[in-house]
Amino acid sequence: MVRPINPLINTVHRVHPMKKMVILETTPTTINFTITPSTNSFLNAIRRTLLSEVPTIAIDLVTVHKNTTCIPNEMLVHRLSLIPLPITPLKRKEECTCNVSCPECSVTFSLNAVSNEGMTVNASHLFSDAVDTTRLKGLICKMGEKQSVKMTALARTGVAKEHAKFCVVTVVKINGEKIEFEVLDEVGKPADVLVMALRVIKEKVGRLIRAIEEYEG
Fold it and tell me: Ranges for the DNA-directed RNA polymerase RpoA/D/Rpb3-type domain (predicted)?
């Protein structure tokens, strides 16, 4: 079923006014669309941007205060960083004027779990004043009797070309002039992710045009 999405189509027209976009199919986690006329280079630019340059938020800085589990600190920190966070991207750290962190560029999480008879610690055990953590998904660790773990963490905005934890898509497929991709269901809607990717392309093309004009001028 063809389902045109006006904001998406308008974004494509602003990036390239001569191109036509048609949404072929959408689900809560996938979107299938065509852009015509098109070239392999343009489609590949969309693919690479979806995979590596769409901004999102992930846990980036962790302080381990106590860990008596059998899992090393490094593994716990790695598991925290891969938890999908349904948070609108904030300012990049380099764009913020704060020293370390503030509500404009980061979200603070804490974890304080104590096991008397053994327990499974999931992402929903995290606490934050800014986010409802009860719906977060992801295993952090399994604790034995009389074990505990206490950590604080900062989540920041980044892109996947910096670290894979910032990747919002799971797969991008190109077939002729058709593109299909899937997003993590916890991080947002496919249409929103595509709009952000197209805006990134538009900004990069704009910077290139300005650089050429300044060079020629």
Answer: 30-211
CATH of the domain at 36: 3.30.1360.10
Cα 157 to Cα 57: distance, rounded to the nearest angstrom: 4
Specify the length of the chain in residues: 217
For residue 89, tell me if it sits in a domain. Answer: yes
217 part of a folded domain: no
Q: What is the pLDDT of residues 144-168, one digit of tens each?
A: 999 999 999 999 999 999 999 999 9
Q: Cβ distance 31 to 191 under 8 Å?
A: yes
38 phi/psi in degrees, rounded to 5: -145, 170
- For residues 44, 48, 49, 55, the Cα torsion angle rounded to the nearest 10 degrees is 170
Does pTM top 0.90 for this prediction? no
**Residue 180: what are its φ and ψ, rounded to 5°?**
-135, 135
φ/ψ (deg, to 5) at 115: -110, 125
Q: What is the C-alpha separation between 58 and 170, in angstroms, rounded?
A: 16
Same domain? 44 vs 74: no
* Residue 179 lies in domain: 6-54+168-211
Residues 203 and 112 in one domain: no
Number of domains in the chain: 2
Nearest to 181 by CA among 23, 64, 19: 23
Q: What strands, in cross-sheet order, belong to the sheet with 106-115? A: 56-67, 147-158, 106-115
- Which three-class secondary structure state does DSSP give residue 46? helix
